């Protein structure tokens, strides 16, 4: 019954007629626009968290983002080219054509994180705390950027007749599928998963006490779980082994390493209460030789002498009662 109603209301998700937005003489590639919007949203959230954690400003977030985004785009493109070399070996001119799609998230995360750590050091931001501040912004950028695949009509999943199935143009339908076939909108699945992961990371960071930098490992575990099952739905050509696609193996290995790291870190530090941070400008000797107001010292001495004066005043009365 519910499926029938949804089928009547939605039927399927249409695809854009073009992968570009035309504004007069200006043509904007929608794929790049989605990535840019994702970056803008991520930088905003990152800057907000830096200020709430009192370790940086929005200007710091923008400066770090320049390094991380450039490195991330280069890393993600290299990952895609290397893992899909058959599509580029006879047409090397396609490699810099990012607007045609083809960015590998694992390469982007690796290169982007390394560049961010370098930028944190340049800005005087503790690396682990900076990574913690930036972590929820990563899935937010991915959630928005994934809509670029919708505009390009690419990286969809297996054929399906579900109410939210994706319709694509006839020239985009892979060989072996009949015209009019609809497919799983894997871009939508991953977008929703990443939005949910962003919210979950914010809640975890607020309610749990994690050591600096550990939130990034939680992100890796969460994203790997989602990417593993979504990748299993995709039908685009990919290297595979043991019944799993390459990106599934990458997600599986990265997720297990991150989960093992979190467990070892928890086991090693369980029950340990960290000492409060002291002002680095004031060492122990300064605490021992700290100067006090003379009036305060005099008041303290008077308070110490008051009990003795009261005892002396009572002693004659006691003697008289004894006599």
Summarize the structure.
Helices cover 61% and strands 4% of the residues. The protein is built from 12 helices and 4 strands. The N and C termini lie far apart (106 Å).
Keywords, separated by commas or semicolons:
323 residues; mainly alpha; two-stranded antiparallel sheet; 61% helix
Q: Major beta sheet, specifics?
A: 2 strands, antiparallel
Number of domains: 1
What's the gyration radius in Å?
31 Å
Distance between the termini: 106 Å
Ranges where pLDDT stays below 50 over 5 or more residues in a row are 275-291
Q: What is the tally of beta strands?
A: 4
Helix and strand string, N-terminal first?
HEEHHHHHHHHEEHHH
| Beta-strand fraction estimate | under 5%
- Note the total helix count: 12
Secondary-structure content class: mainly alpha
Shape: globular
Q: How do the strands line up in the largest sheet?
A: 1-2
Can you give the mean pLDDT?
84
Question: How much helix is in the residues?
Answer: 55-70%
Describe the structure.
This protein is mostly helical and 323 residues long. The chain has one domain (27-269). Helix content is 61%, strand content 4%. The protein is built from twelve helices and four strands. It has helices at residues 2-9, 30-52, 58-83, 105-123, 127-134, 137-145, 147-152, 186-207, 214-231, 246-269, 284-288, 294-322, and strands at residues 20-23, 26-29, 240-241, 244-245. The strands form two sheets. The chain has a two-stranded antiparallel ribbon. Strands 3-4 form a two-stranded antiparallel ribbon. Strand 3 (240-241) and strand 4 form a beta hairpin. Helix 3 packs antiparallel against helix 4 (105-123). The chain is globular and about 55 Å long. It starts with a helix and ends with a helix. The model is unreliable at 275-291 (pLDDT under 50).
């Amino acid at each position: 019954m519910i499926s029938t109603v949804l089928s009547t209301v939605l039927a399927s998700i249409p695809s854009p007629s073009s992968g570009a937005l035309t504004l007069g003489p200006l043509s904007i590639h929608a794929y790049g626009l989605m990535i840019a919007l994702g970056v803008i949203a991520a930088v905003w959230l990152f800057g907000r968290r830096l200020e709430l954690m009192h370790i940086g400003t929005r200007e710091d977030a923008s400066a770090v983002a320049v390094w991380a985004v450039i490195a991330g785009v280069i890393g993600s493109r290299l990952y895609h080219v290397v893992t899909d070399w058959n599509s580029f070996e006879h047409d090397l001119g396609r490699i810099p054509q990012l607007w045609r799609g083809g960015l590998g998230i694992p390469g982007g995360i690796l290169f982007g994180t390394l560049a961010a750590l370098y930028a944190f050091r340049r800005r005087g931001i503790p690396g682990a705390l900076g990574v913690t501040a930036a972590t929820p912004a990563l899935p937010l950028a991915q959630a928005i950027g994934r809509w670029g695949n919708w505009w390009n009509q690419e990286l969809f999943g297996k054929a399906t007749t579900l109410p939210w199935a994706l319709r694509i143009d006839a020239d985009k339908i892979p060989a072996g599928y009949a015209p009019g076939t609809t497919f799983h909108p894997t871009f939508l699945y991953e977008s929703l998963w990443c939005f949910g992961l962003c919210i979950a990371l914010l809640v975890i960071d607020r309610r749990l006490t994690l050591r600096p930098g550990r939130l990034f490992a939680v992100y890796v575990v969460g994203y790997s779980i989602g990417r593993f099952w979504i990748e299993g739905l995709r039908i685009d050509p990919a290297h595979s082994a043991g019944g799993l696609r390459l990106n599934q193996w990458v997600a599986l290995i990265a997720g297990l390493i991150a989960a093992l790291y979190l467990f070892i870190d928890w086991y090693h530090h369980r029950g340990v209460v960290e000492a409060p941070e002291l002002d680095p400008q004031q060492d122990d000797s300064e605490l021992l030789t700290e100067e006090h107001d003379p009036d305060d010292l005099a008041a303290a001495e008077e308070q110490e002498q008051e009990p003795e004066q009261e005892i002396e005043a009572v002693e004659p009365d006691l003697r008289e009662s004894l006599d």
